[in-house]
UniProtKB/TrEMBL annotation:
Coiled coil: none annotated. Residues 1-30, 220-248 are annotated as: Disordered. This is Gluconate 2-dehydrogenase. Residues 1-18, 227-248 have a biased composition (Basic and acidic residues). InterPro entries: Gluconate_2DH_su3 (IPR027056). Pfam families: Gluconate_2-dh3 (PF13618). It comes from Mycobacterium palustre.
Length: 248
């Protein structure tokens, strides 16, 4: 495992500002995480499922069911959707949290954010336009057949420009690009972090009702205390303190 006493593994502190592949983390030994790596290799949130009320347990466990076929996005749009979700979430190997299916389900059911930017189309239209625009950019700027057909480095470059609102021309002219990024990422991240595999990856305790919390101390340091269901991380450094120390 990489030396985590230095901040070289933290985002934006390496040459070019690109974080390393998450494989510097240990292999997951208990439960499932995306790509079977994570900071909490001996933690499985599902071991506490008996402490959840029946309604909560039903909702959470349903997220583990094998996803069905897409209902909102077309067969032609699906490859770009999956490539986009995999790229922004750095999911380049199985097991993957089914983020694409989560986005598709919300759009198919019309479960949107409850508000819409005045200068943006409906979120459903935004998604279709974004996927079309990503394919156009991959073809026009990088000479690829589509966004999904592009290699990782090209997809990451396009996504980076998308996040900064630096894409233009073609279908992008029909969107406020920065707002389009926000619309898409809210939905992608919502789907990812609502899944128990993502909870295992970050050591999240899952639903606290009706169990509640028993410990009042901090999670790190000499006086660290943990809930009975919590597990220590494979690395204990505080990224914020490391960065502020200037030991780069």
């Amino acid at each position: 495992m990489a030396d985590t006493s230095r901040p070289d593994h933290l985002p934006n502190l390496r040459e070019g500002g690109k974080p390393p592949h998450p494989s510097w983390l240990p292999k997951q030994r208990r439960g499932i995480t995306p790509q079977m790596i994570g900071r909490y290799p001996d933690y499985d949130v599902l071991e506490t499922a008996d402490s959840w009320d029946e309604a909560t347990r039903k909702v959470v466990l349903a997220r583990l069911e094998p996803p069905g076929p897409l209902r909102f996005f077309t067969e032609a749009e699906e490859p770009c959707l999956r490539a986009f979700c995999d790229t922004v979430l750095a999911q380049d190997a199985e097991p993957r949290v089914p983020a694409a299916e989560s986005v598709d389900d919300k759009l198919a059911e019309g479960r949107l954010d409850g508000y819409q930017y005045a200068d943006m189309p409906d979120d459903r239209d935004t998604w279709r336009l974004v996927l079309r625009a990503l394919d156009e950019t991959a073809s026009r700027r990088y000479g690829k057949a589509s966004f999904a057909d592009a290699e990782d480095e090209t997809r990451e470059a396009i996504v980076d420009r998308f996040s900064k609102g630096l894409l233009d021309g073609g279908t992008w002219e029909r969107l406020n690009v920065k707002r389009a990024w926000s619309v898409c990422m809210r939905m992608v991240l919502s789907g990812f972090y609502s899944h128990p595999w993502a909870w295992n990856e970050i050591g999240f305790g899952g639903p606290a009702y009706p169990r509640g919390f028993m410990r009042l101390g901090g999670p790190t340091g000499p006086a660290a205390v943990r809930e009975p269901f919590e597990r220590p991380g494979a690395t204990e450094e505080d990224p914020v303190r490391v960065v502020r120390s200037g030991d780069v």
